[in-house]
Design goal:
Number of strands: 16
Radius of gyration: 20 Å
Distance between the termini: 15 Å
Helix content: 25-40%
Number of helices: 11
Shape: globular
Length: 331
């Protein structure tokens, strides 16, 4: 028997339970991982609340990211072997696989041997944050040196990953955050400028930073009414990549700016990259190269014990973190 995280009704963190289940045997193309650390993401909180793109099938497991040791492999698995240290790329639906547990199955195509310089906690933090930022900034927006990129919700794990990727390619990351409370932490994380959107005029600050031209790329997980402010801060022909919907409010289309500046508003989900084998491999290679040379480093805000999984989700939803929340599982 092994414990997994499961919920029997949608709702807040209090619905999460640690439940004993029979240890599954891996089938063709699958492997089993004895986990050492679990990475938390906003998508899991939305899934738990029934607000995600995919509805949970109750009772439901949960979890996209984990690191650990391969415990068993199914037929046809050749990329890893029993005993390998691996981490999980979120390249599946949580209704098919859910990796927040002590002993879990994962598809072999979504498992990589991570660099041995990473701790278990770091390895469980890598793939969602860096591959999402890579897909939106490099694949879709074609981020280049000297581009200015606006990054709302910049203290999130993906926001910090976007700052690092922008610096890695020589671009200029501008962090957007609601208040100035996290300003110094974001500057320390590599942002060239920080704009507190409830305290400052976003468009005016961006014009000052760019010498009046505006930002060429905007990488936004929020949506809602602030999209109008982002459009006002955009340069002509800017690409606005929307990769989330954290705002509960409707997102009005800023038609005048879209027309006058010839803006492109593009939706992006990580599955667009991970479901294409060639694109997924390119993303993994990009991230591994950045990790190897130290340009990319997972930022961990806090760690929690496995028994405190509900507390970890409460911290995730509080919105006070700077970086990734990780749950550790003792050997």
């Amino acid at each position: 028997m092994s414990r997994i995280v499961r919920f029997h009704q949608v709702g807040g963190p209090e619905v999460l339970r640690l439940e004993e289940v029979e240890v599954p045997e891996p089938g063709p193309g699958e492997l089993r991982i004895r986990t050492r650390a679990l990475g938390l993401n906003r998508s899991e909180a939305m899934f738990r609340r029934g607000q995600y793109l995919v509805d949970p099938i109750l009772p439901s497991g949960i979890g996209y990211e984990a690191s650990g040791e391969v415990d068993a492999v199914g037929p046809g698995v050749e990329n890893v072997a029993v005993g390998d240290a691996v981490s999980v790329v979120p390249a599946f639906a949580m209704t098919d696989y859910a990796v927040h547990g002590e002993l879990v199955l994962a598809p072999a195509r979504a498992v990589v041997k991570h660099p041995d310089t990473l701790s278990w906690e770091q390895a469980a933090s890598v793939w969602m944050m860096f591959m999402t930022a890579y897909g939106g900034l490099i694949e879709l927006a074609d981020l280049h040196a000297d581009d200015t990129v606006l990054i709302p919700a910049s203290s999130s794990s993906v926001g910090l990953a976007a700052i690092q990727i922008a610096r890695m390619v020589g671009a200029h990351p501008v962090a957007l955050t609601r208040t100035s409370a996290k300003r110094q932490q974001l500057l320390d994380a590599g942002a060239e400028a920080v704009i507190a959107t409830t305290e400052e005029d976003t468009a005016a600050r961006v014009r000052d930073f760019t010498g009046g031209t505006g930002a060429r790329i905007i990488f936004d997980p929020v949506g809602g009414p602030t999209v109008a402010d982002l459009a006002a801060a955009a340069a002509p022909y800017t690409v606005i990549v929307l990769y989330g919907a954290l705002s509960p409010e409707p997102t009005p289309l800023p038609v005048i700016d879209v027309l006058a500046k010839h803006l492109t508003i593009r939706g992006y989900l990580l599955s667009e990259t991970t479901q294409d084998e060639q694109r997924c491999r390119a993303a993994i290679d990009f991230v591994r190269a950045g990790l190897a040379k130290g340009a990319l480093t997972p930022v961990i805000d806090a760690t929690f014990a496995f028994d405190d999984i509900a507390d970890a989700h409460h911290h995730l939803e509080a919105g006070s973190q700077v970086g990734k929340i990780v749950v550790t599982i003792p050997r």
